[in-house]
Design goal:
A two-stranded antiparallel sheet has the order 1-2. The radius of gyration is 15 Å and the shape is globular. The mean pLDDT is 88. 20% of the residues lie in helices and 18% in strands. β3 and β4 form a beta hairpin. It has 103 residues and is an alpha+beta fold.
């Protein structure tokens, strides 16, 4: 159990450590760092370019939200393109420029 008044279950605004613990059990991530290597979670495949400045990601097609709607590339693009708008992620978003949807 967690002894805490939870302020948010919105991943971009849930900044307390305990909220993050809960969200880690509810939401999947695009990639996960396991044993020092990235592995796809929502990503079926991911390929960085030669200098590591661009990553091409193919999403798994079997992923749906809790309401049954299918996860789309627009959902991923929205999340990454708006990271800089949230104070908790603003510093981490400095390495990120934009998302381009290919297909």
């Amino acid at each position: 159990g967690i002894v805490l008044s939870v302020d948010s279950f919105e991943p971009m605004t849930a900044i307390q450590r305990e909220e993050q613990y809960i969200l880690a059990n509810v939401f999947d991530t695009l990639l996960e760092l396991k044993d020092g290597e990235y592995v796809g979670e929502l990503a079926e495949t991911f390929e960085p370019n030669e200098d590591g400045t661009v990553v091409t990601v193919k999403l798994r097609e079997d992923v749906t939200f809790h309401n049954g709607e299918k996860l789309t590339t627009k959902d991923i693009a929205y999340t990454y393109d708006h990271m800089k708008d949230y104070s908790f992620y603003a510093n981490d978003a400095t390495y990120y420029d934009h998302t381009e949807i290919i297909d």
